[in-house]
Amino acid sequence: MMNRQKMLQDLEEVSVWDIIVIGGGATGLGAAVDAASRGYKTLLVEQEDFSKGTSSRSTKLVHGGVRYLAQGNIKLVREALRERGLLLKNAPHVCHNLSFIIPSFHWWQKWYYSIGLSMYDLLAGKLSLGKTKMLSKKTTMQLLPAISSKNLSGGVLYQDGQFDDSRLAINLAQTAAEQGAAILNYCKVIALTKTGTSISGVLVQDTISGRNYTLSSKAVINATGVFTDKVMEMDDAGHQPIVSPSQGVHIVVDEKFFPGKQALMIPKTDDGRVLFAVPWHDKVLLGTTDTPIKEISLEPRPLQEEIDFIIQHSNRYLSTRITYKDIRTVYVGLRPLIKVKGKKSTSILPRDHTTIVSKSGLVTITGGKWTTYRTMAKHAVDSAALACKLSKQPCVTDTLKIHGYTENTTSSDMLNVYGSDAEKINRLMNEQPLLKEKIHAALPYTKATVVWAIQHEMAMTVEDVLARRTRALFLDATAAMEAAPLVAALMANLLQKSEDWQQQQVKAFEAIAQNYVIH
User: Do 119 and 98 contact (CB within 8 A), yes or no?
Assistant: First the structure.
């Protein structure tokens, strides 16, 4: 279903699309799934790869947001908890329940957190993942072997969701394709076209071939995250920016620094945020930060003070000490927060989403977070249908199973996140035993996962494979760089590319991977 050549052919054959979605992150992919499943003729174009930006760089949590509850944003928390429940039902292969523990260092904190989190459970209603429990000091230390015992009085355990963000993004792209949408990565919108004052389509460039396409559409949805304002400027040269970008940094260390199956939530850091230590793919993610930034880019870089902040706060709570040399990867995501007059700190800007319909009919959806991608998509498609007078069709995504859906998710195997596709990858390895070989001793991925990414998941570059189809770059950046020549050779063989192409790909990947390595 995910055949790029066939999708490009659709650009020639479809005279008018119902909806063109710009942006292949969580919200854009969600909008494509929503629009296509309602029966609208749908096209999604993404300038780079699916989830190349913020959508592959999250804390990997599907959560209501305990912090937003403390801020009194009940509406956002209730919506997010409902969406968390639906995601765990519709994509159980890539989203699962995870226990979190908040340590308590004063006797009253246990009661304080317990009451707040009981409210969290209550707001989840029927979709609750399990009851909050108060823990003794002994139990807290058993469940969090790395927690420092100094002044520890116990803890509170609650349930939330965890997922693999870019794997879910690929599954959404596959779902959209199965519903009849055309989905294209490496297709950049270079202009919006208008008939009179109304938007009538887009001019896109396939950045792989260099070819341009002028495409007509009844509705256009702008779902470009931190690049929202750039598309709005294409529509209206006098547009005033609405996005206040904020940078979130995570570091990844080996699980020996934080053994066990539970996650840790530190409820208040020096800047008023929460900090997580989360087990993920046999590593541990520590983060995140909230730093307002002026310049946006596809490859944001961490600031030294952000890394120091995470290390210092982690070491304050853990008995193991983390140093710079222990960091396997550092990654950075940019949040598209909506500007609010008078608020300077991005950590207090709302995480709600905003839908805007311009005079020309351009529908912009921005803000929000991964957990609420489905409702954001619904609002965007509802707005597009209304503004552009499309036939009214109901949204069906609350019960739509996402590609890879399987109820059998007990395996802790590396292929678990592939869901129903895992069986096909295993078959590939049995048919061609050489594909059972790992791409690197320090990484869990086999050559078969590379072949699968190229043949079924529209991976076009070494970076696509090592950053998003597998999560190699996010688990161990140095190992990923060492695996790059092997991956490039496998790809070149399948895509019939030259030796020069291989070398260019390895060089390009190394340049990007340098941003993930601590120097």
Answer: no
How far is Cα 492 from Cα 505, in angstroms, rounded to an integer?
10
Q: If you compute the radius of gyration of the chain from its CA atoms, what whole number of angstroms results? A: 23
pLDDT of residue 347: 47
Mapped onto helix, strand or coil, the DSSP state of residue 425 is helix
Biggest CA–CA distance in the chain, Å, is: 71
CATH architecture of 414-516: Orthogonal Bundle (1.10)
**What is d(CA 138, CA 147) in angstroms, rounded to the nearest whole number?**
11
| The predicted structure's pLDDT at residue 269 | 78
pLDDT digits (tens, 9 = 90+) for 250-263: 999 999 999 999 99
Distance, CA of 224 to CA of 231 (rounded, Å): 8
Domain ranges of the chain: 4-54+167-242+351-387, 94-162+244-347, 414-516
Q: What is the pLDDT of residue 456?
A: 98
DSSP letter for each residue of 353-400: EEEEE-TT--EEEEE--GGGHHHHHHHHHHHHHHHTTPPP----TTSP
- Any bridge partners for residue 17, and if so which? 217
What is the C-alpha separation between 395 and 354, in angstroms, rounded?
19
Nearest to 441 by CA among 472, 474, 464: 472
CA 260 to chain centre: 24
Dihedral angle of Cα 331, 336, 339, 344, to the nearest 10 degrees: 0
Q: Tell me the CATH number for domain 4-54+167-242+351-387.
A: 3.50.50.60
* Segment holding 175, helix H or strand E: helix 165-178
Query: pLDDT tens for residues 287-340?
Result: 999 899 999 999 999 999 999 999 999 999 999 999 999 999 999 999 998 876
Q: For residues 100 and 160, give the distance between their C-alpha atoms in angstroms, rounded to a whole number.
A: 7
With a cut of 70, which residues of the chain have pLDDT below it?
Answer: 340-351, 409-412
Which amino acid is it at 133? K
Who contacts 285 (Cβ-Cβ below 8 Å, separation ≥6)?
A: 59, 60, 250, 251, 252, 276, 277, 278
Identify the pLDDT of residue 348: 40
Q: Minimal CA–CA distance to 61: which of 165, 133, 169?
A: 165
Whole-angstrom distance between the N-terminal and C-terminal Cα of the chain? Answer: 41
| pLDDT at res. 392 | 95
Give the residue among 192, 179, 240, 187 at the shortest CA–CA distance from 381.
Answer: 179
For residues 264 and 286, what is the distance between their CA atoms, to the nearest angstrom? 9
Give the model's pLDDT for residue 410.
54
Only one residue has tokens 């000490």, namely: 321
**Total-model pTM:** 0.96
Specify the CATH architecture of the domain 94-162+244-347: 2-Layer Sandwich (3.30)
Q: DSSP label at 305?
A: H
